[in-house]
Amino acid sequence: MTSTTTGLSADELAERDELVEQTETGEVDLRALSADQLDERLDDLEDEDDADFDDEDSGDIELIVLDMAGTTVADDGVVERAFALAAERSGIATGEAFESALEYVRDTMGQSKIEVFRVLADDDEDAAQRANSAFEGAYAELVASEGVAEIAGAADVIRELRGAGASVVLTTGFSPETRDAIIDALGWHELADLVLSPADAGRGRPHPDLPLTALLRTGASAVDAMVVVGDTVSDVESGVNAGAGFVVGVLSGAHDRDALEAAGADAVIDSIVELPALLGLRGE
Fold first, then answer.
1. CATH no., domain 10-74+149-278
2. Residue 118: enclosing H or E segment and its boundaries?
3. pTM of the predicted structure, to 2 decimals
4. Integer Cα distance of 194 and 4 in angstroms
5. Residue-wise burial string across 184-209, b where 16 or more C-beta atoms lie within 10 A, e elsewhere
6. Which helix (H) or strand (E) holds 168?
7. How far apart are CA 276 and CA 245, in angstroms?
8. Residues 48-66, mean pLDDT to the nearest whole number
9. Given a cut of 90, is residue 169 above it in pLDDT?
C-alpha cells in the first residue's frame, strides 16, 4: 500500500514519525492513550478547526477509516459458517453451547477474532488459539472455494474518496493472513493507503487503537479530521472511543439502524456508495 504525504515541516515529520515508531515498538501503548491525549500530542503537528460535516466543507476531512467485512466487502454469512467449522474442528463450542456461542459471535462482529475466542474459551489461551487457527483456516477455505466480492460500488467509492484528497485506511478484526487473502482475492493491493488488523495496532475494536493507528500512520493532523465507517456496533464504538469527528454506520452488514445509532453513530446510511455525498465529497 502507498502512504499519503502531508505538507509538514521536517520537525513536524520527525515528531509524527517518532509517535508512529513508539507505537510500533510498544513504547506508546494505544490502550492507555485516550483520544484527548492523542489530540494533545498531535497539537505540535498542526492546529485544525473542528470538522463541520454539515456544511459539506471537504477540506476538513483528512482521513476516512473503513471497515472491511460487511462495509466494503460482502460477508454473505461466511463468518458464521467459518465459525461453525471452527467450533466443530476445535471443540470450543459443541452441543448445547454452540447456539449461545454463535449468538456471541454475531453480537461481537467486527471485534478481533482471537479476543472473541478467548471469551468463548473462558480465557484458556491454548484453546482460544486452536479455535482461532481453525477459524482462520475455515475462512480461507471458504474464500478459496467460493470467492469473495466487494459491496457493490465499494472500490469506486474508495477511489473517489482518495481522489477528493482524503486518505483511506481499511481495517478489520481478522488476522493479517486472512486480511491479506481477502485483499489478494479482490485485487485491492493499491486501492487504499493502508490496511490494518488488530495485530498492527495493539487491540481490536471496540477499542480506539485501529483508528488512532490509521491517523498516526497517515499523518492526519487531529481526530476531528477523521471519519470512521462500519456496519457493526464495535466499528461505531471504536470510532467514538477514538474521538473521530464523524462516525457513520452502514446497513449492509451485521447490525441494524437502532443498534448503530445506540452505539453512537452520527449518521446511518444504507450502503458505502452513499458516503461521498454524505461527506460533501461529491458534487451532487
1. 3.40.50.1000
2. helix 113-120
3. 0.72
4. 9
5. eebebeebbbbbbbbebbbbbbbbbb
6. strand 167-171
7. 16
8. 61
9. yes
Return the higher-pLDDT residue of 84 and 42: 84
Confidence check: pLDDT of 51 > 50: no
* Residue 11 scores a pLDDT above 70: no
**Cα-Cα-Cα-Cα dihedral of 33, 35, 41, 45, to 10°?**
140
For residue 120 the three cell numbers come to: 468463548
Distance CA(38)–CA(154), nearest Å, equals 30
User: What are the tens digits of pLDDT across the range 101-152?
Assistant: 888 888 887 778 888 888 898 889 999 999 989 988 998 888 888 888 999 9
Sole residue written with cell 484528497: 165
Backbone angles phi, psi at 195, to 5 degrees: -130, 125
Pairing between β-strand 167-171 and β-strand 194-196 as defined by DSSP bridges: parallel
Of 15, 273, 9, 29, the C-alpha closest to 150 is: 273
Residue spans of the domains in the chain: they are: 10-74+149-278, 78-146
Which residues, listed in sequence order, are joined to residue 194 by a DSSP beta bridge? 169
Q: How far is CA 82 from CA 51, 70, 199, in A?
A: 40, 15, 20
